[in-house]
Amino acid sequence: MSELLGEAQAALDASTALFAELDDYTGQARILANLVATLAPRLDVLTDQLADFTELAGLGMLAEALTHEVYNQTDRLMLQASSATKKAQATRPQNRDLIQFARDVTSTVSVLRALVAHLSPSLRYQRDSLETIEMSGLLKEVRDHFRSRWETSQFECKIALTGSDFDIEINRGRMLQVIDNLILNAEYWLKEKLERDPAFKPEIAIDYEPYRLRISDNGPGVDRSVEDALFEPFITLKPKKQGSICDVDQAGRGIHGRF
Prior knowledge:
By secondary structure, the protein is mostly helical. It has two domains: 2-118; 129-252, Histidine kinase-like ATPase, C-terminal domain (Heat Shock Protein 90, 2-Layer Sandwich), CATH 3.30.565. The chain is built from five helices and five strands. Strands 2-4-5 form a three-stranded mixed β-sheet, covered by helices on one side. It has a two-stranded antiparallel sheet with strand order 1-3. Helix 1 packs antiparallel against helix 2. It is elongated and about 135 Å long. It starts with a helix and ends in a 7-residue tail after the last helix.
């Protein structure tokens, strides 16, 4: 009888140890489940960001190839327009229609080259070069670029430049990339507000002083839901495929300059 009781006690002890081990595994499983629940949304975000980075790389290569080709083709157009103008002027009587057409072609090509030139400093082969930039001149260039852009889309927005000038030695392309991205983001939300309120007057203010640059607008402001993650890659409240492909943080990475 005592032997049976001993065996029963041993079996009970083994069962108790087994259940204790199972409880330990259960606790670890709960911890892992909580980790998975915490990490799963973050992994989804990282997956989307990786896709965006891939798209960004592809767009960069495409922009570089497109810019190179635009310069080549516009060079040919400028030469052909110049040649046509000389021939038209040499004929008697002068072919005024051809002269005017050649001038229109030259004017259009000049505008196209100016727009492409705004993109050119951001391309790979120019991203690492530093140059001394007068801040007021750079900002006037940005203002003129967006004025031309908005004229074609019939979007009325005032860009006000105020401040004290200073020079900075920096990569021009990266600096333009940061400023462009901020203004493009402002443009999107100003247009959204304008659709809801036709009487709204969009304004963007750029204030600069040694050695600060402030860009603000009179739009709806930053949503509280993205305040903490605002400078993470590709964080946006815009609909998919409408967000800027380059976020503020990524645009600003690699900016190194001297005042």
